[in-house]
């Protein structure tokens, strides 16, 4: 099975069976003998087609006399792949995109759609220089079409950041972002890990203004890395690492991580504590507790107590006991669309109010755990003000005992950061 065929089958399952993108991608990459380069191609096509679906469908509609809803799911998926490669993948020759699409059409449309696919894609390729998306003067409609976002989402982001910044965010989300790792200082140092990874053929560099973070360059498969298996590092976005830096856990403290799975922030806290003290890691889903335990075991961490717990309900025995509490709450995820493009289509506007209600409940419980003089950090991987800045403003109106000492809204970054919000508060004595 070729890389493009594997990608096609994944996209078909996403469209016709509502398969999760990450699950479909994992299946697509499991083909025996697939090279690292082909895995990269499959990943880029799947994420790219899903992320740019509105724009790609619009392009197809401009070059096809057949309405999209009249096409077979296989033919539509093949056309989407072809258009995405022609418009958005600079290193793919147009002829290759067309020829490979025709081969797939012969196999998956019983030959009947091959001529149609060939005609549409060659027309697209000939007209690429002259093609442009319509400019109606309505920024919400124009940006939503060109960058493939729901209009409700674009409207919210324009209201908060302005149309120009919204366009920049959307363009940034289309770019490939590098891999960031957190050095396990219980076992090694950033300088030593750089040498170890280079010996494995992985180019990397220290992240500026971050204590224990490295950027990896090029393709990387953690399963093939002995350094990863030996627990010398973890994959963790720099924005997520910054939340733990803000928490600043110390040796022999009691730390509570309210929504901990899969355990990245709990493990980061334990590493910063020198594996001395205690980290209580709650998660509402029992099957995710093993993710936390397995991560801690790989890293050589023994101070994490991972347990099932609903963080909207207080555990009375912990009230007022924690030195520091991290509330990295469930959110809309708009800051990680560059990694999870299906969020665009799975998230609905009505979800936001429900999420805000859950966030408020978790924040109340988190505050109850903090001892006098202790620290509370609230974080999300979204960029919507009602889940971030406005959530904290409401909390502080009702909790005069807490003082905000640090606040940062990170936008999807030019150095690989995910969109993220971090607020650090201290409970006054």
Give a verbal description of the structure.
48% of the residues lie in helices and 16% in strands. The protein is of the alpha/beta class and 429 residues long. The strands form two sheets. Strands 7-6-5-8-9-11-10 form a seven-stranded mixed beta sheet, with helices on both faces. A four-stranded antiparallel beta sheet has the order 2-3-1-4, covered by helices on one side. A hairpin with a 6-residue loop joins strand 2 (204-206) and strand 3 (213-216). The longest helix is centred in the C-terminal third of the chain and has 21 residues, at 349-369. It is globular.
Number of helices: 18
SSE-based structural type = alpha/beta
| Share of β-strand residues | 15-25%
Strand order of the largest sheet: 7-6-5-8-9-11-10
- Whole-Å distance between the termini? 65 Å
Brief rundown of the structure:
The chain is of the alpha/beta class and 429 residues long.
Question: How do the strands and helices of this protein lay out in sequence?
Answer:
Blueprint: H1 3-17, H2 21-28, H3 36-51, H4 53-63, H5 73-88, H6 94-108, H7 114-126, H8 139-147, H9 151-161, H10 163-174, E1 179-183, H11 190-199, E2 204-206, E3 213-216, H12 226-229, E4 233-235, H13 238-247, E5 253-257, H14 264-272, E6 277-283, H15 286-299, E7 304-308, E8 322-328, H16 343-346, H17 349-369, E9 370-380, H18 389-398, E10 402-410, E11 420-427
Parallel strand pairs: 5-6, 5-8, 6-7, 8-9
Antiparallel strand pairs: 1-3, 1-4, 2-3, 9-11, 10-11
Summary tags:
single chain, 429 residues, alpha/beta, seven-stranded mixed beta sheet, 18 helices, 48% helix, globular
């Amino acid at each position: 099975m070729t890389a493009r065929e594997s990608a096609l089958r994944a996209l078909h399952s996403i469209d016709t069976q509502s398969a999760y993108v990450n699950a479909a991608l994992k299946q697509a990459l499991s083909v025996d003998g697939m090279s690292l380069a082909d895995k990269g191609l499959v990943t880029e096509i799947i994420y790219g087609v899903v992320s740019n679906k509105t724009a790609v469908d619009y392009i197809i509609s401009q070059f096809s006399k057949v309405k999209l809803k009249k096409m077979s799911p296989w033919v539509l998926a093949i056309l989407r792949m072809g258009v995405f490669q022609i418009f958005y993948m600079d290193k793919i020759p147009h002829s290759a995109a067309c020829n490979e699409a025709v081969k797939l059409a012969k196999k998956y449309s019983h030959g009947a759609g091959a001529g149609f696919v060939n005609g549409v894609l060659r027309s697209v390729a000939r007209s690429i220089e002259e093609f442009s998306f319509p400019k109606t003067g309505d920024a919400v409609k124009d940006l939503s079409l060109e960058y493939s976002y729901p209009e409700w989402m674009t409207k919210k982001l324009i209201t908060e950041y302005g149309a120009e910044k919204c366009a920049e965010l959307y363009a940034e989300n289309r770019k490939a972002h590098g891999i960031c790792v957190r050095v396990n200082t219980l076992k090694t140092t950033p300088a030593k890990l750089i040498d170890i990874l280079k010996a494995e053929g992985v180019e990397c560099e220290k992240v500026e203004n971050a204590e224990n973070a490295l950027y990896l360059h090029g393709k990387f498969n953690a399963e093939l890395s002995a350094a990863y298996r030996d627990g010398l590092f973890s994959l963790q976005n720099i924005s997520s690492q910054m939340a733990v830096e803000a928490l600043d856990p110390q040796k022999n403290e009691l730390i509570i991580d309210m929504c901990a799975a899969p355990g990245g922030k709990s493990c980061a806290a334990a590493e910063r504590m020198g594996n001395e003290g205690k980290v209580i890691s709650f998660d509402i889903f029992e099957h995710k507790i093993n993710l936390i335990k397995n991560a801690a075991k790989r890293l050589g961490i023994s101070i994490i107590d991972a347990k099932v717990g609903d963080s909207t309900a207080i555990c009375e025995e912990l009230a007022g006991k924690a030195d520091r509490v991290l509330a990295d709450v469930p959110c809309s995820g708009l800051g990680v669309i560059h990694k999870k493009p299906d969020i665009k289509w799975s998230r609905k506007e009505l979800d936001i109010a429900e999420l805000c209600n859950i966030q408020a409940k978790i924040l109340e419980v988190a505050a109850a755990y903090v001892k006098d003089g202790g620290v509370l950090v609230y974080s999300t991987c979204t960029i919507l003000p009602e889940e971030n800045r406005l959530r904290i403003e409401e909390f502080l109106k009702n909790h005069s005992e807490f003082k905000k000492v640090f606040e940062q809204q990170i936008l999807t970054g030019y150095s690989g950061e995910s969109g993220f919000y971090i607020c650090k508060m201290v409970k006054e004595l």
